[in-house]
Amino acid sequence: MDAPLVRAATTADLPAVAAIYTHYVLRTTITFNTEVRTPRAWQDRFDEHVVGGRYHLLVAEVEGAVAGYVESQPFRPKPAYARSVELSVYVAPDGTGRGVGSALYTALLEHLAADASFHRAYAVVALPNDDSVAFHERHGFELCGTLTEVGYKFGRYLDVAYFERAL
Ligand SMILES: CC(C)(COP(=O)(O)OP(=O)(O)OC[C@H]1O[C@@H](n2cnc3c(N)ncnc32)[C@H](O)[C@@H]1OP(=O)(O)O)[C@@H](O)C(=O)NCCC(=O)NCCS
């Protein structure tokens, strides 16, 4: 496999990004969304966070196709949280374990490290997700707390682990 090419997403990438996310919405408890995010909602999110905001949406291309994406987004809406950022990373289900997620995180963390207006990065990991836990520890995140049975999807309660990294 060629090394992933990581670049800033454009509007033209949103359908490919949406297709990856939709898989995890419909088939897994990795995301707590239960309904597919519409093309309009993806566009609005992109316009608000990336075009008009301080956040990022990066895609990784492998052999000319989008193989994964990472986004930064506000951690919480209240103003005192503005120096904290939440990251979400999704690799196409047939392309995990090949360095795509790492290429995305490395690039995004470089952007964030260069931006003095951010102080902490968070990843919110629905459990169980051993791959994501190992991935975040590999990228310098530390577990800072777990909410028990805070989520409910597909007929069961789910824990959520908060991972933190200084920027
Ligand atoms: C979690 C995810 C983003 C990791 O991306 P990836 O491209 O699969 O991971 P990489 O190949 O870059 O691996 C990087 C590191 O993550 C860890 N890791 C990834 N997959 C792993 C697995 N199956 N078992 C153990 N460790 C794993 C390892 O530490 C690995 O480093 P190493 O190869 O040097 O040992 C990806 O698997 C994914 O999208 N999973 C489904 C969606 C998801 O869980 N997103 C995160 C939501 S919080």
Q: Rg to the nearest angstrom?
A: 15 Å
Relative helix content: 25-40%
Broad shape: globular
Poorly predicted parts: none
The largest β sheet comes out as:
7 strands, mixed
Strand order of the largest sheet: 1-2-3-4-5-7-6
Structure annotation, total helices: 4
Number of strands: 7
- Second CATH tier, the architecture: 3-Layer(aba) Sandwich
Assembly context of the chains = single chain
The overall average pLDDT, rounded, is 97
State the name of the first-level CATH class.
Answer: Alpha Beta
- How would you name the CATH homologous superfamily? Gcn5-related N-acetyltransferase (GNAT)
End-to-end C-alpha gap:
31 Å
State the CATH topology: Aminopeptidase
Beta-strand content: 25-35%
Total tally of structural domains: 1
Order of helices and strands: EHHEEEHEHEE
Overall structural class, as computed from helix and strand content, comes to alpha+beta
